[in-house]
Task: structure prediction
Amino acid sequence: MSDDMSGDPQVTPRASGGRAPDVFRPGGWVPMRSYRDDETVDFVIVGTGAGGGTLACKLAEYGFSVVALDAGPYFRPLEDFASDESEQTKLYWTDDRISDGANPLQLGSNNSGKAVGGSTVHFAMVSLRFRPEWFKSRTLLGYGADWPIDWREMWSYYTEVEQALKISGPITYPWGPKRPRYPYRAHPLNAAARVLARGCEALGISWTETPLATLSAPRGLAHPCVYRGFCVAGCSTNAKQSALVTWIPRALAAGAEIRDLAMVGRIEVDDRDLVTGVHYHRNGGWHFQRARNVVVAGYAIETPRLLLNSATGRHRDGLANSSGLVGRNLMTQSNQAVWGLMDDEIRSYKGPPSLAITEHWNYADKGKDFFGGYAYMSQGPLPQLWANTLAQARGLWGARLVEEMTNYNHVAGLKIVGEMLPQERNRVTLADEVDQYGLRIPRVTYSWCDNDRRLIDHSLAFMTRALQAAGAKDIWTQDDDTCHLNGTARMGDDPRSSVVDADCRSWDIPNLWICDGSVFPTVGGVNPSLTIQAIACRTADRIRAMARRGELTGQRAERTRRAVHATSASA
Amino acid sequence: MSNDTDWLVGAGLALSAIAATAMLQPRGQTKVTQVPASLPRRAGPHPRASVRAARRLNRAAGLLAVSVLADSSVEHYRGSFKNKAMYTPLAVSALTLAMSAHGTADRRPWAHRLRDGSYLLAAATGLAGTGFHVYNVTKKVGGFSWQNLFYGAPLGAPMAILLSGLLGFCSERVRDTSRAQRPHVFGLPAARTIAAVTAAGLLGTSGEAGLLHFRGAFHNPFMAVPVTLPPIGAALLFNAAARDPDDDQNRAHPLTRAWMWLLAAMGFVGVGFHAYGVSRNMGGWRNWSQNILAGPPLPAPPSFTGLALAGLAALGLMREHPDA
Ligand SMILES: Cc1cc2nc3c(=O)[nH]c(=O)nc-3n(C[C@H](O)[C@H](O)[C@H](O)COP(=O)(O)OP(=O)(O)OC[C@H]3O[C@@H](n4cnc5c(N)ncnc54)[C@H](O)[C@@H]3O)c2cc1C
Ligand code: SF4
Result:
């Protein structure tokens, strides 16, 4: 029995003293390289999710010294995760936030996580590539903004991530340019997925098995999926290929240090406009970790918050914010659904929630009265979530709610991941209130635009037809749900209209980087994590190339300093 | 799932285990009797040699039946015996098994009516089962797709009971014609026919393993073994079947025989690998009642052993009867 078993991972850090939890062995440990606060490391990374976890791994494997900090706990999935929705809310970022605007976002379970591994610890594992045209949506499709990256380059980074996560996917993917075969085979469809398939076949559009980041065969010490469907409450078998069980163990093996329960409150900048490290809160006190480069990867709300909270006299509006765009162009994705009852038992909660998908309306441009696209997938809500949905969307309560819950096993649903357009008014700012660390909390302002509404209406009408065609009865629509968050520090070609360049390097401060969903100029109609991880892989390659050419400011400074040390030692 | 079916499946599994051991028993005894009965190499047809080949074929058919009994018990239990017809392969393979045990012990040089009938029944069951499985796959949404080939009723599985029936039926023919100038099946030379049937069976079984191992993404390099060794064995057997009967030198087929032994061993080792595969599921063997269903099928690999034994029987007959 390990000595941290009694300790609460949400109270006492686990990764310390030269070791970190071994997520594959109950009570086990892996050795971890440790750095002192006053040791200047090559990279400090804030956040260990899809963006930060991936980058930490890649940079460590490329030989950089890396310390990655996460405000959340270091969970051991095999031991810490219960088959209990209430217990598992411990995975969510539920710190205080203010949400306003015409369509205020519901923050918490459906959009952000707080753990080593970030939101990928409780994400739904849907792993999709962007439609190539979306990287140039302004030029090619007439809306949003262009990305400064070519889709062909992204195509090879997508492949890298798919291999790293052993994505289980269909043999042939019906949409878009050819992609290599997914490393693992698709999972068996559950009845809910077959409802989607029947609807698509009746309406004459393609469907396929959803590419998922969960194992359909063993991989090392990770078990294959057991189809119990607790995925968004945290996977206790390690089948889910979250950052926690993929990139992070690799990062540790390559010499990175991970610090859990370490909340970064401020990035320090010197008079030369270079960052020098981060102030973080851990073990009841504030510390300062020196670094030649700082990467912010805290997700689309915490990233701008940290940049804004790090304002100085010289950087009054926050760091990297000469464009005034830090915090702006926040984009969520529409997540509306259509639900109905089937005669047969469906038990939609069996297996990963979204086993079948159609991307038809991502790739079809005719028959649309809106810009952008959407995918829709089969659904598998757990009972508590389902009761909440019925209570909120339909106002059911008491006896009526109980009665409706008796239909639970017959429910089938289709839900979109829809593209919302970037708008500058949708943004993250700082409120005057402070949180438990004394840091100003974020205010998140969100309002849909007409295009967002038209897309949602189109999808609800189409999915209603699909569900009818599949034989569902008592169909109703859930009109108000949103999911993933992106934007707030967009990448681009021009320092006046973007926060970072294509390499995720901030225009204003050359040794400050942003590497998470915040850099998306547009979101597309697919779940974002595969793209975030692909960008992180690309960023690591770019950093390595720049380092080889001596283009990393911090490194140049270090080389001089080392030389000084050497002289003083020999003196 | 009712307790009845639990019991039934348990009984099926136990029976197959006992039978598997029993099937392999008589070999030692035959060896002993073989020595005094050593015949001049080119003595022409000898009834005893034919009966020996026939008994070996009974044993091979029995081993295949064991595999079917265990496999269909587990898989149809997993399918909750949704359709009453799903009991059929259990009953038929159990019967085939019993008949094969009887045949393996029986030294009389003539066919047995009940055995003959049950072998034909097994073959018919295999054909009907294939029909059922094809229907199951095609009626699913997506039709004849990878998804349904992977996860629908396995198309190749009922072939095993068909093969068991065919080999058993051949065995009876070999016995029946043991006193004839050359053992034959429907007028065709028995050894060559059986070798060809076995080779085809090896190819089919290897195809089935290939499909399911592809489903598992060949995540373990050893998963390539049952898709590489058996096709080579099949080619060797076909080659043996096609050899000129007057070619005296080449009747021993040492390489082919060795390859059959290799395949027979592979079938057993495969169970070990599948047991390891089961252990890699959540909870490992401690959670055996779920993981036996979720992991790779334990009873599947021995069908290669069954076929390899049939191949050996055919080769043995070929050696003793130049034109069999
Ligand atoms: C319920 C749910 C289901 C989802 N399903 C899917 C899906 O199926 N497919 C898909 O592609 N995407 C899905 N997503 C979205 C996906 O998880 C996120 O888009 C992705 O993880 C975001 O990556 P990130 O690196 O930007 O942030 P995260 O992965 O959220 O990582 C950010 C990390 O930074 C830490 N952090 C933040 N601020 C600080 C700070 N100041 N100091 C220290 N640490 C800090 C946080 O604790 C967190 O661990 C889902 C999300 C949720 C919530
Ligand atoms: S259904 Fe699969 S991926 Fe989801 S929690 Fe269970 S084992 Fe993990």
